[in-house]
């Protein structure tokens, strides 16, 4: 349970930690998107529906 007298500023981490996280996400999100795009392009068209034999 959160104490009712706790403000958002008191609950937040330090500005240095927030900047570190922001920079980390700013770097990792484009890398993740590029990796997923590459993976989808590599495997696109490789999966076929199995015929009923």
Radius of gyration equals 22 Å
Give the biggest sheet. none
Number of continuous helical runs? 2
Distance between the termini: 60 Å
Which stretches are low in confidence, meaning pLDDT under 50 for 5 or more residues running? none
H/E series: HH
Q: What is the strand tally?
A: 0
- Tell me the structural class: mainly alpha
Which whole number gives the mean pLDDT?
88
- Overall shape: it is elongated
Give the percentage of residues in beta strands: under 5%
What portion of residues is helical? 55-70%
Describe the structure.
The protein is mostly helical and 53 residues long. Helix content is 62%, strand content 0%. It has two helices and no strands. The chain has helices spanning 8-11, 15-43. The longest helix is centred in the middle third of the chain and has 29 residues, at 15-43. The radius of gyration is 22 Å and the shape is elongated. The model has no long low-confidence stretch (mean pLDDT 88).
